[in-house]
Structure formats: structure tokens, C-alpha cells
Amino acid sequence: MKELSVKLKDGEYKVYITSSMDRFSQALIENKIKDKDSMFIITDDKVYSIYKDSIEKFKKQYNVKEYCFKEGEENKNINTVQGIYSFLIENNANRNSILIALGGGVVGDIVGFVASTYMRGIRYINIPTTLLSQVDSSVGGKVGYNYNGVKNIIGNFHYPEFVYISTNFLKTLEEKEFQGALGEVVKYALIRDSNFLNFLNENYKGILEKETDKMIHIIKSSLKAKSEIIKDDLNDRGIRNVLNFGHTVGHAIEINSGGKLTHGEAVALGMLTSIKLSENICKLRRDLYGNIVNLYEKLRLPTKYKVDNYTLFMYAINHDKKNDDKIRFVLLEDLNKPKVKVEINKKDIINALKNSIS
Ligand SMILES: NC(=O)c1ccc[n+]([C@@H]2O[C@H](COP(=O)([O-])OP(=O)(O)OC[C@H]3O[C@@H](n4cnc5c(N)ncnc54)[C@H](O)[C@@H]3O)[C@@H](O)[C@H]2O)c1
Ligand SMILES: [Zn+2]
Fold first, then answer.
1. Do 169 and 180 contact (CB within 8 A), yes or no?
2. pLDDT tens column, 251-306
3. Going by DSSP bridges, is the β-strand pair 142-147/150-157 parallel, antiparallel, or unpaired?
4. pTM score, two decimals?
5. Interval between CA 104 and ligand 1 midpoint (Å)
6. Which residues form the pocket of ligand 1, taking CB atoms under 6 Å from any ligand atom?
């Protein structure tokens, strides 16, 4: 088992990274969570159906109640939040209660938000079950939901008591979900950790096979990178911006693909365009692009995307600004040397798109 401490302004919390749920009760004790503290496990219907037997066993063992909502990004909304509030009130949840989020990023974001608001804030534990939530969303304290079609527009910062990661969950994950999250993994290696980049290049076979030690290594390295970046910017005012590397173009590709590409796959493509822009604008060395394309091929990440209509595409990148406005990018001056808030012309973005993924 590996452990990681995530530093906060006043204190820290632990992330346990291991291959099963066997050490969970030990983690409860270590974090001073007592039997008399009422616990509520909250998950989505897909996770529940796959892990029904273990969840039912856990409920008996710890005397916890469970609430399940419909899976998917479209249910990351106020109705789901209200459903959980009602469930908690009906079951007399109080200030000592603890919520357990069991699921992917949607469950983690929603349950964290409910925990941050119910009775002005109660404790929660995060058990992320997708690769994306294990390498990314379970750390950082951002919680929230989508409203009126705007992603994560309602939200808060609320940190869990601890995060417990079991790589066993990844075995049941759909291939596309697994693959996409590798895009975010490469992001951490690019912006922060060149040894990790070497590890990915050397161990891609074991990673695709989901070998336990490889999974534990990529989760720990990604979360270490993320927690180091956010520790100086807990409220997301500046340096945290580097986490958006690849995301400006990535978001537009995600929308443009109409659901064909996952978020992580789209971000992977966005990073290639950002690397190309970095060559021209930040004098980034020119061999990195080819090296990263090679790595993508090893990890089965996409390297090409056809943009049919650049006008529509640019609108997706920056729909609320006029044509001549500049757009802010995170670029790379060198490997692991990101530069935030670089203003780029639309023309340069289109050129970079044409010279990279098109
Ligand atoms: N808070 C943050 O800092 C942060 C960072 C990145 C992403 N996010 C959010 O995370 C969400 C995406 O997370 P996600 O990709 O985990 O999506 P998700 O929670 O929708 O999970 C994807 C799918 O996998 C299923 N699933 C979960 N665990 C499984 C398992 N072990 N086996 C089989 N199926 C399983 C889910 O039911 C769902 O159908 C987005 O809403 C995004 O905004 C938040
Ligand atoms: Zn992302």
C-alpha cells in the first residue's frame, strides 16, 4: 500500500493507494472515525449493480445506509443533490455523520458538494472507482454540479477526511473510460514529472494490462503532481491553471466530437496542439512533439482529429468573445516548465491545429 499526504492550509489528509478494500477499516481507525459516527454510502446505479454484494456486506458490517442515483454526467445536477439532501434528512443525518462517495468523478463531485453544504458542512470520505477519479478528481477539493447546461458552475471547495483508492475497481471499468484517463496521466508527466514520462514510455504494456504495481505507480505519481501544484493555490487563483494544460482545445474537441471522444482523449489531442503552439511561441524544443505522439501510440491514445468547420470549432473554444480576441493558453517552455496565461491569436490556434492533429 502506498500513502500520500495532501497538504491543506491547516492540516492535511491522506490518500491510501492499494489493490483491494482490505485496509479500509484500518483507514477508518487511523482517521479517528468511530463506530458511533453514522455513515452513509452514496453511489450510482452502475457501480451499485457491479459491486452489489460487497456494498451489501459493507452496509451490514458498519451499519450504514446507502443511497444510489442514476449514473452519468447528465445526472450531475440539482435534482440528484436534492435527492441526497432528502435521504439524509429522512435518515436523521447530523453534524457527526460521514458521507462515503463510492464511484467516479460524478459521484465524488456531487457527494463532496452535498457534504460541503449539509448542515453547513459535514465530513466525507472518497472512494474513487474510475481511473479518472483515481488519478485526478479525488484530490483537489473541488466539488459541485452542472446547472442550466453549464459544467461545474455551482460548486465549492471541500476536502475529504481521506481518499481510499483500490485499483481492483479498474478491472470492471469500460475500456474507453480507462483509455481516456491516460490522457490526464500524460498531462501530469508533461507539466510536472519527467521521470514519470519515462516510466510511461517504458511500462506502457503493463499499464494497458492494468498490472497492479503499474496502476499504483501511475495513480501515486499523478496525485503527487496534482497535490504539489495545488498546495500553493488552494483556492484556484493562479498556479493551479497549469492543470488546464491541453484543456482549451480539448474541451472544444470534446464538444465537437459529440460524445465520440472521452474528456481525457480530447485533452490528449488538445495537449498535442498546445505542444505545437509552444514550439512557435515559447521556443519549446521540437523533438518533444514526436516523442509524445509515440507515447500516445503506445498507450492507444488518439493522435489525429479532423476539424470540419474551423469557425464553429473556434466558437466552441471561446463562444463568448469576439473574433479578434486573444485566448489564454497554458503552454510549455520546456518539459515540466509550463507557462500560464499566454495570450494566443485565433489565427495561431488554427495554424497549430492544422500542423498538429489535423
Ligand atoms: N473535482 C475535480 O477536480 C474534477 C477533476 C476532473 C474531473 N471532474 C469531474 O469528474 C467527472 C468525470 O469523472 P469520471 O470519468 O469518473 O465519470 P463518471 O463518474 O461518470 O464515471 C464514468 C462511468 O463509469 C462508471 N463506473 C464508475 N466506476 C466504475 C467501475 N469501477 N467499473 C465500471 N464502471 C464504473 C460510472 O457509473 C459511469 O457510468 C466529470 O463530471 C468531471 O467534471 C472533477
Ligand atoms: Zn481534465
1. no
2. 999 989 988 999 999 999 999 999 999 999 999 999 999 999 999 999 999 999 99
3. antiparallel
4. 0.95
5. 3
6. 44, 46-47, 50, 71-73, 76, 103-107, 109, 129-130, 132-133, 136-137, 140, 142, 152, 169, 172-173, 177
